[in-house]
Design goal:
InterPro entries: DUF4440 (IPR027843), NTF2-like_dom_sf (IPR032710), Steroid_delta5-4_isomerase (IPR011944)
Protein name: SnoaL-like domain protein
CATH architecture of the largest domain: Roll
Strand order of the largest sheet: 7-8-9-10-11-12-13-14-15-17
Order of helices and strands: HHHEEHEEEEHEEEEEEEEEEE
Oligomer: single chain
Mean pLDDT: 86
Radius of gyration: 25 Å
CATH topology of the largest domain: Nuclear Transport Factor 2, Chain: A
Keywords: Signal
Helix content: 10-25%
Structural class: alpha+beta
Number of domains: 2
Distance between the termini: 45 Å
Shape: elongated
Largest sheet: 10 strands, antiparallel, barrel
């Protein structure tokens, strides 16, 4: 299958020509942005005819993986039709980063495109598109792109935890715990940076890495803290609850263990509890269940 980017590629362009300026540039930029929206809408309706009509009759698309060119509106229509038959649940999202004019009838758009399948990223690219103005309409004429992200096989094992992405907070009158979770490149791993603050001072901090173990078909995690402690965990799901069995080494070399349970309540809330806690073989009290909320990014 040709790169799905052809489909995402709605609009970028890059040639080695300098920008051109004239008085009506703003209205023409608006026209190109409107064309981009029309392209995305046609793509997400899986309407190959409508998509093809937004390309010039002599348009050329270059596949970023193979270097193969799809030449002409009819060939592009056939390419989209085949793609839409093969993948029925794919949606396109694009961001235009810049539009420059080589002349009143030639423009270059650059941006990023993301292909979504079942609400998860299938592929992301940076693209460059050359537009030509024909009979008062802006049409795609040349498109090239570079793939910036393809989810790894590990993503399939981790996507059940995708709801954790973002910033979370738990606070009371004694301390504030802030955790921020992000994907690494290609969604191979998840990283969770955490800090515990008392007043205005960060008292404790650390990092957790979560990954998919393809050999054992399970999720594993590794944690490192600012005091020098470290540990690893194995994750198992039961309904909306994740049970993480942790074993660790404290800064002085003492062994520790616990079972943590994270239970998803909704998109913005989960609960956390630690039980079966031991240090040096001695049983410690359980940590009562606490509620953790998604943090407002503007805070």
């Amino acid at each position: 299958m040709k790169s799905i980017l052809l489909k995402l590629t709605l609009m970028l362009g890059c040639v080695g020509l300098g920008p051109f300026a004239w008085s009506d540039q703003s209205s023409e930029q608006s026209a190109i942005r409107q064309m981009v929206r029309a392209y995305v809408d046609a793509y997400n309706r899986h309407d190959a005819d409508a998509v093809a009509q937004l390309w010039s009759p002599e348009a050329v698309y270059t596949d970023p993986d193979s270097g193969e060119q799809v030449v002409g509106r009819d060939a592009i229509r056939a390419e989209f039709a085949a793609t839409f038959r093969e993948i029925k649940d794919v949606r396109l999202s694009v961001i235009t980063e810049s539009i420059e004019f080589v002349s009143p009838n030639v423009a270059i758009e650059k941006g990023s495109a993301t292909l979504l399948q079942q609400d998860s990223v299938s592929e992301s690219t940076h693209y460059s598109a050359v537009y030509v103005k024909r009979d008062g309409r802006w049409l795609l004429d040349r498109v090239s792109e570079v793939v910036t992200e393809r989810p790894s096989s590990g993503y399939e094992g981790l996507k059940e935890l995708e709801w954790l992405i973002g910033s979370w907070i738990d606070d009371d009158d004694q301390a504030t715990v802030v955790t921020t979770c992000n994907w690494t490149k290609n969604r191979t791993f998840m990283t969770r940076m955490f800090s515990i603050s008392v007043g205005d001072n960060v008292d404790f901090a650390g990092m957790q890495i979560i990954g998919w173990d393809a050999a054992d078909k399970t999720i594993r995690s590794w944690v490192f803290d600012s005091d020098g402690g470290f540990g690893q965990g194995m994750w198992h799901r039961q309904g909306e609850a994740w049970h993480i069995r942790l074993v660790g080494t404290l800064p002085d070399g003492t062994r520790s263990s616990s079972t943590n349970t994270m239970r998803r309540v909704d998109d913005d809330t989960f609960t956390w509890q630690a039980v079966d806690r031991t240090v040096a073989g001695e049983l410690l009290p359980n940590v009562d269940e606490i509620v953790v909320n998604r943090r407002d990014v503007n805070e």
